[in-house]
Amino acid sequence: MISDTHARSLERLPQELLKELAEADWVVHCGDYTSIAVLSELRHLSRRFIGVYGNIDPREIREELPDKTVFEVEGRRIGVTHPAWGGPPFGIEEEIAKEFERVDIILFGHTHDACYKTIAGVVFLNPGQAYPSFKNPASLGIVTIGQEGMDVEIRSFE
Questions:
Q1: Domain count across the chain
Q2: CA nearest neighbour of 6 among 152, 154, 135
Q3: pLDDT (tens digit, 9 = 90+) per residue, 65-117?
């Protein structure tokens, strides 16, 4: 899963990150594509794609995607959002949790800071930003769901 690509094309993202996406069973984007081309390229690259729009996405992306969604993988309910209502990132998980009912995982973007924590039995995962900057490296989140449970990893790319 990725978020906050802020790019005109996937070519601006690290090649290693794109390779991970191409090999994934699901690609989830948590908003702020910036360009409809990125959305189109992700849909083409992905085996299965889920996405929501972010606060800086143009109208053409907002017409294609919801502001939040829920889907299921291996019996786990997964919520996806881009919490663009503002405010500090500290404690944002509690506000995000109010947006969903009966989910096991909430994937979110917007803050550009990678985050993985569990609160009241719900996993919160923010993959960070998908492009490298002076502040943060490019990163993505990997969620593996199987019979034995769930494994979560945040992987960074320089």
A1: 1
A2: 135
A3: 999 999 999 999 999 999 976 556 667 898 999 999 999 999 999 999 999 99
CATH of the domain at 71: 3.60.21.10
Flag whether 123 is in a domain: yes
- Give the span between the Cα atoms of 98 and 22, in whole angstroms: 32
Q: Which position has the token pair 């085996």?
A: 47
Any idea what DSSP says for residue 83? Answer: -
Cβ 124 vs Cβ 115: under 8 Å: yes
How many other C-beta atoms lie within 10 A of the C-beta of residue 96? 23
SS3 36: helix
Query: Distance (Å, rounded) from C-alpha 80 to C-alpha 15?
Result: 25
For tokens 């997964």, the residue is 78
CA atoms of 22 and 4, how far apart (whole Å): 18
Provide the whole-model pTM.
Answer: 0.94
